Amino acid sequence: MIRTPLRPLARILEARAKGENPDAIERENIRIRHEQMRDRARLRAEGRLLVLGVMFFCAFGLIGARMGVLAHSEPSEPRTSIAGADIFAQRADIVDRKGRILATNFETHSLYAQPPQMIEPERAAEELVKIFPDLDRDRLLKDFTGKRKFLWVKKKLSPEQKQAVHDIGEPGLLFGPREMRLYPNGKLAAHVLGGASFGREGVHAAEVIGVAGIEKHFDDRLRDPAHGHKPLTLSLDLSVQAAVERVLHGGMTLMNAKGATAILMEVKTGEIISVASLPDFDPNDRPRPAVEGDASDSPLFNRAVQGVYELGSTFKIFAVAQALELGLINPSTIIDTKGPLRWGKHRIRDFRNYGPELSATEVIVKSSNIGTARIAQMIGTERQQVFLKDLGFFEPTPVEIVEASGGQPLLPPNWSELSTMTISYGHGLSTSPMHLAAAYATLANGGRKVTPTLLRQPAAQLGPRVMSEQSARASLSMLRKVVTEGTASFAEVPGYAIGGKTGTADKPRKNGGGYYEDKVIATFASVFPAHAPEYVLVVTLDEPVETSGDEPRRTAGWTAVPVAAEITRRVAPLLGLRPQIEPGELAGITLTAN
Amino acid sequence: MRSLFYLLTALAVIGLAFWAYRENYETQAAQAKAEELQRAISHERQRLRVLNAEWAYLNRPDRLRDLADINFDTLGLLPLQPYQFGKIDQVAFPPEDTSLPILSPVDVSNMEAKQ
């Protein structure tokens, strides 16, 4: 580049000759040079701004375009990472305590139709009806030839059916993959498992959602992909459950009962080993809920947690245990049992007259209503309420199935002293058998509260103390005497030292006026072995009648007790419980001074 | 000197381009293989689930009970009863060796050597 000198000699000389100031020329030249420099700098700056602007435009354009692409593209699994391999089921399995499958998923197909693509709709309808006799031919034909563009034909197909539909060769009949819930054991533990059905449905997949039981209670946990490969482990034992259901079904048939329930619970952990309610259903093909008639007659009704009844004399032990705990009585205190006991216009009677007085132990052994009512009078209303509340009789049981919250106990609206007396022998307070099992487990657990659960527990529960260990043990030895010398003599199973209490309660009439004469709820709540309690078994029969004798017998001692004994005999070996020789009662040692 | 530099640069670019091309195709092949393996794994898992379900179905208590009833003649299976628990002291000790004890053993291996 040629630089123009600031003081060109020619012009300087010329200016000097004219007498002008040559510095003006220099200043003029400097000005021109500065202007040129300024122009160049501006040009460069403008150019840089342009480049920068273009770059920003490109960057924003790129980000915008990428966002648009991401928003509009189909999501695809990452190809290179292994993260996708962990999720392999839409819904986690449910297994029993030993890992045996109770509920799992199964790949199957659904069948849908796209009538516009059909070539021979009439033939397709004909052939489909041949494969699925439950479909209506005219209806199908109307759908196939009408305006519909899409319809579901079948939600689940077996592989054979799929092949048969495939062989029709109709391009308008299409299959969508489906995961379906399978309960391989059929009716077993139906009330616990509940059932599942499809939620939102698409062509490529459908949601499987729980509709009842534990499936619904743990729906979120089972559907959570983070837990997809971890099965939900229940406390149930498959073989024990099968044996209990089998024996209970036999017992229900023999005793002509219309329903039955059995709960087997481990004392220390509160785990429910088996819970059966009959009649039951197949969760693979869950029936529709009854819209008319009595809900409790439906096979869907879970008697163990929803069946809220007065459970009769099984409650007597709580009054006696509380009186022992409060120090009001000891097992040999003599209680006045002269009958009938009058309270206002009410009379409390015993099943038969047991004489003018009985010891506290005999009150339980012979099941005297009057004796228990007298003990309840000693305890008083407020203390009784607190005690029953501590045992969990005021709230629905916290068992992990949705139906459990429906088992709200029915308390007397006005808890008078008469209520206190009747509740002490199990009338006036309605609870579910599950409540009773939990309360007996609390007695058997040395007085520490046991909360029933359906999930496998890693360790024993350490609930709050409801009563002292001595009172609990004294109550248990009374329960043992009920079996050895009292109303539950059929419950004696050699080697298992069952202790328990029978309860026979009249069923209340539907319209609310009094009780039926010939309809009872027979209950037997038992603990075995009584000297070192491990399991609690509650058996309840609905309207049993035993007809082998001259006249029909309905008391629990003749109906529920033999069934419970048979269940214990069958189940205890399965639980690995060896028959034991019961330790004899130790002679009381009294220190005497000389 | 400068032309040599240009030549080397051009050769390096060609070499790197070739390397990148090969790496690209190898990566794609590896991805395809990984996908295939993933598919195989999920297929096997699906199959495992089906087999587990079938195992559970075939071992359902109802069926086993019926099978035990049908085959009672040969198997004679009955539900477990309490009296079937045994005790260790019900097991007899093994019988003692009844052959006569050898009190003065003779070493035979040396006899031939002595003769």
Question: What report would you give on this structure?
Answer:
The complex is a heterodimer of chains A (594) and B (115). Chain A is α+β, with helices and mostly antiparallel strands and 594 residues long. Chain A has 2 domains: 103-233, Alpha-Beta Complex (Penicillin-binding protein 2a (Domain 2)), CATH 3.90.1310; 239-574, Beta-lactamase (3-Layer(aba) Sandwich). In chain A, 37% of the residues lie in helices and 19% in strands. Chain A has 18 helices and 18 strands. In chain A, strands 1, 2, 3, 4 and 7 form a 5-stranded mixed β-sheet that branches. In chain A, a hairpin with a 6-residue loop joins strand 16 and strand 17 (515-528). The longest helix of chain A is centred in the first third of the chain and has 51 residues, at 22-72. The radius of gyration of chain A is 41 Å and the shape is elongated. The N and C termini of chain A lie far apart (137 Å). By secondary structure, chain B is an all-alpha fold. Chain B has a domain at 1-75. Chain B has helices at 2-58, 61-70, 72-75, 111-114. Chain B is elongated, with a radius of gyration of 40 Å. The mean pLDDT of chain B is 86. Chain A binds chain B through residues 79-80, 82, 84-85, 88-89, 100-101, 104-107, 182, 184-186, 188, 238-239, 242-243, 246, 493-496, 569-570, 572-574, 578-579, and chain B through 31, 34-35, 38, 41-42, 45-46, 49-50, 52-53, 55-57, 59-62, 65, 79-85.
